[in-house]
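In this section we walk through a basic example: taking a raw amino acid sequence and producing a predicted 3D structure, encoded as discrete structure tokens. The instruction is simple. Fold the sequence below.
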Amino acid sequence: MNSVLNVLNDVEGLLSSAIPGVEIFIKSKDPGYTGEYILLDHQPFTFEDVVGNGVVNVHVHVPDLSGGKQNRERLQDICDEVIGLFPDDTFLNGYYVDILSISDSTADEEAGTHFLTIELSITYNNLILWQELFMELTM
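The resulting token sequence is shown next.
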């Protein structure tokens, strides 16, 4: 069974190695960090069926240009790099990853960035979990 934390760590490792110069954070950014970064979080993962599903959110943040103007070109470049890592049905450590959606850019005035969100659909096999549960119930 893949825990949500394992999935986040796997995605973080892939992004870190493929997109140099962009810091990757899981669930929260270091308070003093002001450069380009990706923040990973997730929506609920399901475990009730043999096939489980979840969503990892990849929030791509790029510091604003002067006057609070978004750096649209750099935001698009990083977004393209992320998307390129996940062609259809990418298999990563026991689960499949697909691009589910990509949002429009939004201002984060507190961080001084604009960001967009790429939602990754995660599909994994819970068969081992179900087998373990069955074994416990039949003993």
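Looking at the output, two observations stand out. The longest helix spans residues 4-18. The mean pLDDT is 88. In the next section we compare this with other chains.
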